[in-house]
């Protein structure tokens, strides 16, 4: 296998999903985070996800325990030295991402590609703090990762054609296709989606309609699988807020001003599915 061992940095919702997808397709995974508590939660979430995947995909052939055993959970960044590819999934905070890339750039072999799993942060900016800007590429996975067949791949200013081709082969090994777009804040998906979610939050805030009815408009009238606020709950309202704030800062355009209701909910810990309460209830 060309990418026999893959480093996954960040063990939140997206990191666990990427690790699961990799392990299900036969890769060894080094899943790194800074906290043992986060890693313990990642183990719990992964076991639940694997049970659910086996239940809804009978005959898929992936033994949940065998998949789990392909993942090494660790706080030791030095274990990334054996990685053939790295996917980074830390929070949408430039200061945090910058420190992570400066750290892993000194550990991971020079020829290895870094994939930035981000919804808004500039790939060019990430590449600028590494010694390999030509081997840094955006790889915007969608949640839940194992169930989504398409990935938005972002070409930074210095990203080489070889790196784009490597990204295609890597994703092909996960059973996924990709669409390549250019490096602008929010790219395609989140430049549109974050505006939609933010405006939907304003509708709830302004009393135009409750969250359930806002979502029903989209699922019933437009045949969307999920409404914008249910989508926000799935992604995590803290992640949504950070993404909108990045867009607001990047474009200096008031249309990206975060809805005060969204900010209030995040401050209150109402983060969506992962907290049990967001625009909808999941208890």
From TrEMBL:
InterPro entries: 3-OHacyl-CoA_DH (IPR022694), 3-OHacyl-CoA_DH_NAD-bd (IPR006176), 3HC_DH_C (IPR006108), 6-PGluconate_DH-like_C_sf (IPR008927), 6PGD_dom2 (IPR013328), NAD(P)-bd_dom_sf (IPR036291)
Keyword vocabulary terms for this entry: NAD, Oxidoreductase
UniProt-listed GO biological process terms: fatty acid metabolic process
One MF term in the entry's GO annotations: NAD+ binding
Keyword NAD: yes
Family: Belongs to the 3-hydroxyacyl-CoA dehydrogenase family.
Listed name of the protein: 3-hydroxybutyryl-CoA dehydrogenase
Organismal lineage: Bacteria, Bacillati, Actinomycetota, Actinomycetes, Kitasatosporales
């Amino acid at each position: 296998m060309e990418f026999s061992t893959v480093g996954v940095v960040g063990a939140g919702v997206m990191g666990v999903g990427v690790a699961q997808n990799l392990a299900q397709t036969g890769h060894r995974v080094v899943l790194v985070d800074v906290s043992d508590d986060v890693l313990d939660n990642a183990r719990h979430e992964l076991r639940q996800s694997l049970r659910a995947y086996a239940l809804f995909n009978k005959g898929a052939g992936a033994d949940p325990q065998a998949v789990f055993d392909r993942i090494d959970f660790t706080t030791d960044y030095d274990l990334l030295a054996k990685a053939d590819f790295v996917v980074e999934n830390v929070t949408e905070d430039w200061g945090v991402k910058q420190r992570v890339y400066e750290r892993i750039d000194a550990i991971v072999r020079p020829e290895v590609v870094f994939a930035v799993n981000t919804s808004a942060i500039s790939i060019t900016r990430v590449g600028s703090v590494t010694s390999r800007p030509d081997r840094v590429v955006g790889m915007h996975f969608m949640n839940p990762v194992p169930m989504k067949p398409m990935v938005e791949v972002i070409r930074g200013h210095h990203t080489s054609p070889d790196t784009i081709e490597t990204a295609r082969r890597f994703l092909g090994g996960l059973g996924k296709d990709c669409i390549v777009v250019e490096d602008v804040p929010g790219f395609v998906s989140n430049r549109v989606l974050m505006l939609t979610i933010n405006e939907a939050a304003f509708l709830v805030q302004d009393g135009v309609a409750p969250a359930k009815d806002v979502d029903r408009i989209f699922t019933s009238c437009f045949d969307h699988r999920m409404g914008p606020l249910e989508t926000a709950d799935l992604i995590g309202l803290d992640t949504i807020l950070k993404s909108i704030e990045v867009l607001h800062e990047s474009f200096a355009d008031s249309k990206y001003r975060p809805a005060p209701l969204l900010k209030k909910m995040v401050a209150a810990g109402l983060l969506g599915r992962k907290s049990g309460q967001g625009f909808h209830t999941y208890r």
